[in-house]
Amino acid sequence: MARVFVGNLPTDVQESALEGEFDKFGRIRAISLKFPARPPPFAFIEYEDERDASDAVRAMHGRDFGGSRLRVEISHGGSANAASLDSRLRGTQHRVRVSNLPTSVSWQDLKDFLRDAGDVAHADVDRRGNGVASFATHDDMERAIRKLDSATLSGDRVRIRERAPRPLPVALRVAVPLAVPIAASQALALAVPLALPLPLAGAQPEPSRSVAFPFAVAL
Question: Which SS3 state, helix, strand or coil, does residue 27 take?
Answer without folding.
Answer: coil
